[in-house]
Amino acid sequence: MNKEKARFNMVEQQIRPWSVSDPDVLNLMATLPRELFVPENQRAMAFADLSITLPHGQQMFAPREEARMVQSLEIKKTDKALEIGTGTGFTAALIGSLAKKLTTVDLYSDFITEAEQKLRKLSLNNITTEIVDVSQNWSPSERFDVIAVTAALTATPAPFIKRLASGGRLFCIEGPEHNRYARLYRKNNADEITSTTLFEMDCPALITQEHKPAFVF
Q1: Alpha carbon 65 to its chain's center
Q2: Which of 69, 127, 156, 182 lies at a 20 to 30 A Cα distance from 203?
Q3: How far apart are CA 161 and CA 170, in angstroms?
Q4: CA–CA dist 161, 58 (Å, integer)
């Protein structure tokens, strides 16, 4: 496989046509080694227009979904960001490349361990990783300008919205299985919330140590 040709085609044939025009996002998708974050037995599909199956019943977004998510968050170099669901670490690499600081958390220790190794290879030293079950009264002390929840929610995202700073943005996927949509929430300086439906997508629901199908705070 000619990786650079495949990467170029991914950007030009999948990502740009899917309403991604932010030059910083396009540059990241064209330069970050996505294949590094794809499980070795699926690396031949690193640039394909499909999701990648991961252990624990999880999945890695398709490239165009990753790009649209990051573009929608409008990440600035002064932003503090939080990711719920580290997975392979590629989304963390995208967000961490744009934000001032990123905290990424996951329930599964193997995801965190492997992601840490890959993020270190890219010298993304502004990313902090934690093994966390967000249903177990987890309450970070700070508020965030950007929050990305990379597993589907079947209940309200209100507990995450509470963690947004004024002017903050939250990306999440909502709805029942096979009828899920990516949504963006914004909190203005008066702490008023607005939301926009971005696109249809399906992915596994956020789970906890008790294997509950929905997020419970």
Answers
A1: 9
A2: 127
A3: 7
A4: 23
